[in-house]
Amino acid sequence: MSGISGQRGAEPQVAVRSVILASPDAGLRQRLSESLTMLRWTVGEATGGADAMAQVERLRPEALIVDNWLPDLEAGEFTGHMREMYPAMDLLRMDGSLAGSGARSPRRNELLHALREAQDGGPALPAAAAEPVREVEEPVYAPVSVTEQALPEMIGQCASMRELARMIRLVAPRSATVLIEGETGTGKEVVAKAVHRLSGRSGKPFAVLNCAAIPEALLEAELFGHTRGAFTGAVQSRTGRIEAANGGTLFLDEIGEMPLALQAKMLRFLECGELQRVGDNETMRVDVRVIAATHQPLEQRAGERLFRLDLYHRLAVFPLEVPALRERMSDLGLLVDFFLERMGREMPRKRISAGALAKLGGYRWPGNVRELMHVLERASILVEDRPEIGVDEIRFGAHMAA
Ligand SMILES: Nc1ncnc2c1ncn2[C@@H]1O[C@H](COP(=O)(O)OP(=O)(O)OP(=O)(O)O)[C@@H](O)[C@H]1O
User: Fold this and answer.
1) What was the ipTM of the complex prediction?
2) pTM for the whole thing?
3) Among 145, 180, 189, residue to substitute to test ligand 1 (most atoms within 8 Å of Cβ)
4) In terms of DSSP bridges, do strands 63-66 and 17-22 run parallel, antiparallel, or are they unpaired?
5) Where exactly are the structural domains of the chain?
6) Residue 189 CB–ligand 1 contact under 6 Å
7) How far is the CA of 268 from the centre of ligand 1 (A)?
8) 325-393 maps to which CATH number?
9) pLDDT, tens digit, for every residue of 323-349?
10) Would the CA dihedral through 314, 315, 320, 325 be positive or negative?
11) Radius of gyration over alpha carbons of the chain, in Å?
């Protein structure tokens, strides 16, 4: 849950002021959001400290309102850190108390007024918000950010991820071939699985073949299958991945690595839906939807004659681009929450310090989401039995320098 929602009823001459509401309580966020929107504030919502921090960094709002309990960061430490980082920003607690020092600005008075009205059930709030704004003592953490996802398996609420989710929903029910482009670790396989899950083929197989992981000589037999004795070592006949995916979806990862000769055979299969096992004269017909992925710019490779242009066009009927993590750092908090939550199923759930989160935010992430996941896994081991991951436990790269 992130991003700024548009303000209702704003008059053009009124300056737009923005506020971020950080709370794991979706109901509370919504009530306050409605109230503040009526007072002509532009409101962004964050489910936890990490999410809030990423949004503040990106949107530089005039104010931040923080719940007394956050699922990932200690609220006091978090507000202290935010006060230090953004001294000009107004910082309030959900119960109306001031968080940190700082002079009372007119806009802060207005926020306090809105919060007080929320407590009193005054006119600025809809009836549902009339209950007193309560202290959140020990709420059960429901990862709202995760359950409210457009696609539950694909974490990301920034504009490009929302658009990607929309495209996935559009193309999934069709049989069109999909080409997924994006850097390593961005989640291309996650996207392919989402397309399959949302298609009419979801009850049928989802077969995967990584074209870069299989020696060139074996790739053809792996894809198309082979008969007994088709080549040295083929002691028995074998079903290929295309045939194994019949009725379902075949995900061809790293398609850019497919040898040119095999590309021609693949193109024939895509054109007519027929295949021949290696060493077999018989042709069989299968119903398979192909999704291909590449981290290489395939069109450019086609221009360099390293990839067949006709196959490129055949694959790219519906191209999808998965953004690099560094292009969507506003999702960092959500992703951190998601992975800490998931790791928390096997060991006590760890929190992350504001400093550690800032360190994650300053990194370039060449390995994208996969690298983030590994850095957090590593950190949760290094932190031993302490509850909070600190700056020292965040280590990048293979040599683990702090
Ligand atoms: N948006 C996301 N939400 C949740 N998990 C994600 C997301 N993107 C990637 N991941 C996780 O990151 C890891 C890497 O994702 P995936 O294998 O889909 O990347 P990829 O782009 O296919 O990588 P490669 O090009 O190296 O094959 C996986 O464990 C996946 O679950």
Assistant:
1) 0.98
2) 0.67
3) 189
4) parallel
5) 4-146, 159-321, 325-393
6) yes
7) 30
8) 1.10.8.60
9) 999 999 999 999 999 999 999 888 888
10) negative
11) 26
